[in-house]
Design brief:
The protein is an alpha+beta fold. 51% of the residues lie in helices and 16% in strands. It folds into two domains: 147 residues, no CATH class; 227 residues, 4-Layer Sandwich (Phosphatase 2c, domain 1). β6 and β7 form a beta hairpin. α1 runs antiparallel to α2. It is rod-shaped.
């Protein structure tokens, strides 16, 4: 028989088989005894017949033998009945003992399982379960599963606690990151030359996109938008570094190309992670409307002249920051006139995918902006955000941060 540890597979079957075999042996033994007794009596009768002389004596012998046979038959019937009663009682008692050995541990096991609840979910092995058959194997299996369940619950509780701690830390990181971005609009209420609005919708709790705008003197407004490679906390940390370097360098003066070149050299220093950041940076004279922009691998801006719709302003990209220390960045002059609107965004907006895998793209984005090209920057961003959310609402994919900025020149 197949062994598992000290258990015999088929142990219960063996016990039942032993019960049936014992019953058969007792029956055979009983009938053997009865038949042997009858044969012995017949031999006695035959011996008497051989010893008898004459008919009269034989007749008396037959009569005596008949009487003996009748008595023996009656005695045999009584013996058989008694044997059957004994066999029935013995088999019943054996069956009751066997049933108790099976049912008692199963009943105890069932009660123990019923009592498992709440924090008490550990099933303990008891001596009455150690029967050497399938019952012991079943109890050990349940005990093993119970122990694994306890370990699993403890692990879940540990992971949940760590996740809650991480969640709290992520909330703090998200708040710190949000505080680094301008969030009060209008940002310069005393300046009537322009109307500016921006928003960010991170894919994770913290992301790698960022925007900024600030005056470095009375007339020069610096605007920038960037998208760090990667996602999550590493991208957020790199974002903090890049944003700080860009703003500090821009405040020192210089053209957009000079600013990007200096920051690029600093980001390339010890950039063992291999991360990079795309940047669109412009310096706008809000009095004259003239500006200069540099694009380090970022999305092309969209521009609408007064009375006209939005169009894509395309030119050759410069490389992203932190890829090579010796990169030279090109500049692109532009001029905004009364009523013009400038729209800047990250690729998270155009790379959205619907349920069929089709990307939102630049044409759809231009279509949304041109529904009302004369709308205020705040209205434009609100409309774009609503359309993007609907685009991915039914099984679409949003794999990146979405950052938008819009400036209307007065």
């Amino acid at each position: 028989m197949k062994k598992v540890g000290n258990l015999t597979i088929g142990g219960l079957q063996q016990k039942i088989f032993n019960l049936v075999l014992t019953t058969i042996i007792i029956l055979i033994a009983a009938y053997t005894i009865v038949i042997a007794a009858q044969i012995f009596e017949l031999r006695e009768i035959g011996e008497k017949l051989r010893q008898s002389e004459g008919y009269s004596a034989m007749e008396d012998a037959f009569a005596e033998s008949e009487q003996i046979l009748l008595e023996r038959a009656e005695s045999s019937r009584t013996v058989i009945i008694l044997l059957l009663v004994f066999i029935t009682v013995a088999c019943g008692a054996n069956a009751l003992v066997l049933a108790k050995k099976i049912i008692s541990p199963l009943g105890s096991m069932s009660r123990s399982l019923t009592e498992l609840s709440g924090e008490n979910i550990l099933f303990e092995m008891k001596d009455e379960y150690r029967t050497g058959d399938e019952i012991e194997l079943l109890a050990e299996t349940i005990a093993g599963l119970s122990l694994k369940t306890v370990d699993y619950i403890n692990e879940i509780e540990r992971i949940t606690a760590e996740r809650e701690k991480l969640q709290a830390e992520m909330n703090i990181a998200m708040q710190i990151q949000a505080d680094m971005l301008p969030r009060v609009f209008p940002p310069f209420p005393e300046r009537k030359e322009f109307d500016l609005y921006a928003s960010i919708n991170p894919d994770d709790m913290v992301g790698g996109d960022f925007y900024d705008f600030f005056f470095r003197n009375s007339n020069e407004l610096v605007m920038l938008m960037a998208d760090v490679s990667g996602r999550g906390i590493p991208a957020a940390l790199f974002m903090v570094i890049a944003k700080t370097l860009l703003k500090n360098r821009a405040m020192q003066g210089g053209t957009p190309a000079e600013i990007l070149e200096d920051v690029n050299r600093q980001l390339c220093d010890n950039n063992k992670s291999g991360m990079f950041v795309t940047v669109w940076l412009a310096v706008l004279d809000v009095k004259s409307g003239k500006g200069m922009a540099a694009n380090a691998g970022h999305e092309h801006p969209m521009l609408a002249h007064e009375g006209e719709g939005f169009g894509l302003v395309q030119y050759k990209h410069s490389p992203s920051l932190a890829m090579d220390v010796d990169f030279v960045f090109e500049e692109h002059p532009f001029e905004l006139k009364h009523g013009d609107t400038l729209f800047i965004y990250t690729d998270g907006a155009t790379d959205l995918q619907d349920a069929e895998g089709e990307m939102f793209g630049h044409e759809r984005l231009l279509g949304v902006l041109n529904r009302d090209a004369a709308a205020t920057p705040k209205q434009q961003l609100r409309e774009v955000t609503e359309v993007l959310e609907k685009f991915v609402a039914d099984g679409g994919r949003k794999d990146d941060d979405i950052t938008l900025m819009c400036l209307h020149f007065n």
